[in-house]
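To whoever picks this up:

The parser on our side crashed when reading a file containing two proteins. I've narrowed it down to the boundary between the first structure block and the second sequence. Both blocks are reproduced below exactly, byte for byte. First block:
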Amino acid sequence: NDTATTEIYTSLFVGSVSVYKRQAWAKYCAGEERAVGALVGQVMKSTKGQADGKLVTSLLQQRRAAAGSR
């Protein structure tokens, strides 16, 4: 399934951006919604604009929710 492949591929970039952009990730997790722009921007840069911005944002929200439940 092409959609599943795209989501998995994008998810890998989202995972790496939360590690490499720690400061922006920490701000986003602390509730600073504007920090998501830096994270989405980095994923878009890493994928040369091929990632779906809405999917990236959704995956970041899911990752933040999972991090908050630990």
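<<boundary where parser fails>>
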Amino acid sequence: GDEVERLLELVAKKDTGGALEVVNTLANQGVEMKEFVERVVEAARGRLLAKAAVKESYVWELEAIEQLQE
């Protein structure tokens, strides 16, 4: 959800204080931390896979252009 994306954004910005504030707020609200961590890991994995796919696509395009130029 929104709190997962917010936490990932704060971590990406290296905003430790902000990230801790999100986690503490959720813990104080009684959110099940194990489930929250699983959602965070799933979302982070999705972002990494998307980033890797973009890089892979870019590399493939460069290789295709090089082959065309040969």
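After patching the parser it read the second block fine. DSSP finds three helices and no strands in the chain. The longest helix spans residues 33-69.
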